Amino acid sequence: MINPIEILTPDLLLNGTLYDLQGNALTLQQGSKNTLSGGFEAVFPSSVQADKVLIKNTSLEDLSIYYKVQSEAEYILMENASVFLSGKDMLITFPQVVQAVAFKFVFASESEEYFYSFILLKSLLVLDTVLSSLRPSVFCRGGHHYTAGGNLILWREFCKHGGTLTLENVSSSVKNALAEICAGNLLLTFIFYGGFDLSQSGEYGLAAPLKTELDRSLSLWRAEMELAEK
């Protein structure tokens, strides 16, 4: 059974200037709790291409997305976007790739909403014809200490995913595209569609160069990627 994997850009929001809906400068802390009312705007120095938004650990229930194709143009409402919810994670797929100089994200609720990662993306490669397996690992930062009374207190700051992604039956054209993507990016976003659980989807660093080997009998490649969540 083939479970597709999609490889996307790093977070495009890092290339833009962020504002709240009142026009005040804004900084999002990816991986930490961000609490906002109403929504926010991202303005880019030059147009970017995007086709997805991945939101991790969020209280958002609904979201309207607008974009500008030119800086002096009016905002256009994104229509017919598809939304998938997995626990507290949300994936929004645009009906087409959008080239825009600004995006505006408007939350449905007037009250404060929270999210830990809000990632604007463009798809680079969909691995839907290869066999894949992820040998996962989890790194948790935490520790413990004792109070003066001798009580044990445990704390955990964060847990991050990682592991070895193995791809088999990879064609030469897909292998070449994968090698080019890995050579040009230290960070990439991965969406794992098997079972469509978004908990492991997100931004990963390439902890080692891409490894490939050729199965001469099949004229197909095997590839390994060492991933560590950002």
Characterization of this structure:
The protein is mostly beta strands and 230 residues long. It has one helix at residues 172-184; strands at 5-8, 17-20, 25-26, 34-37, 39-56, 63-68, 76-77, 82-86, 89-107, 112-115, 117-121, 123-127, 131-146, 152-170, 187-192, 202-206, 211-215, 220-229. Strands 1, 12, 13, 14, 15, 16, 17 and 18 form an eight-stranded antiparallel β-sheet that branches. A hairpin with a 4-residue loop joins strand 2 (17-20) and strand 3 (25-26). The longest helix is centred in the last third of the chain and has 13 residues, at 172-184. The chain is globular, with a radius of gyration of 20 Å. The two termini are 29 Å apart. The relative contact order is 0.21. The model has no long low-confidence stretch (mean pLDDT 91).
What brief labels describe this structure?
230 residues; mainly beta; 8-stranded antiparallel β-sheet; 60% strand; globular
Overall pLDDT confidence: 91
Q: Roughly what percent helix?
A: under 10%
Distance between the termini: 29 Å
Strand content: over 45%
Instruction: Describe the sheet with the most strands.
Output: 8 strands, antiparallel
Q: How big is the Rg?
A: 20 Å
What is the helix/strand order? EEEEEEEEEEEEEEHEEEE
Q: Tell me the number of helical segments per DSSP (H or I, 4 or more residues long).
A: 1
Oligomer kind: single chain
- DSSP, total strands: 18
Q: Looking at the structure, what is the overall shape?
A: globular
Uncertain parts? none
Structural category: mainly beta
